[in-house]
Target: Beta-1,4-N-acetylgalactosaminyltransferase bre-4
Amino acid sequence: MEFRFIWVQTGGHYTPTRCKPRERVAILIPFRNRNNHLRILLNNLHPILYRQQLEYSIYVLKQADEKPFNRGKLFNIGYLEAKKDNHTCFVFHDVDLIPENDHILYGCVRSPMHLSRAVNTFNYKLPYKELLGGVAAWKTREFEQVNGWSNLFVNWGGEDDDLSYRTIANKLSIFRFRNSVARYTMLEHRRTPVNTARHRQLQDSYTRYKIDGLSSLVYESPRIQRYHLFTMVSINT
Ligand code: UDP
Ligand code: MN
Model:
């Protein structure tokens, strides 16, 4: 047991003791080969979540195989695993986005709520209004209504736009905090290989969502390891 973060219980979990939380928040972080980023994110996130007096758990969704990275599928599997622990609010969180502001509420007051609206690498401006990438919070109801993420996008790009199209197809609004609040710093990393099929794949997003997502997910039970600051879910995609 480390002496830092003494309030955090095994598995990266915290329950406030002086108030009754409205929600149980699961933070889901897709991960492979970004150890430094993960350390920095955890060091920043735990204190913020504690100060917000949320009941929360942090899950690191590690892609254990060497196949092309599949962020959407990791999120779907992580969602179903976290749901077993009775969470009600799910925050899909890139490992390299560090919140700059305590007022970015990591809950589901609205759903879907796009949290990473103002990122330094985009000069703290939302690049386009449908953007749902980076960090976003969803309640069970809306997330299952859109059938979760697509399982079909691998490598870089497309899966977050596909999710936007799912929200539009279901006539859901994307909510955000003010630009001055929802600020993040993106840690530096190399560009991952681009998904060259993404434009073609995005052409049928509006209809494909019904048959591609949580409903079509086939996966082997992931290995679950509970460390002090997070629960590691090791996934073969
Ligand atoms: N990711 C990862 N390892 C990889 C590729 C992606 O852990 O090799 C995760 C990580 O959480 C990252 C997210 O997927 O923040 C999105 O990928 P990336 O940061 O490369 O996308 P970009 O910021 O360029 O859109
Ligand atoms: Mn990134």
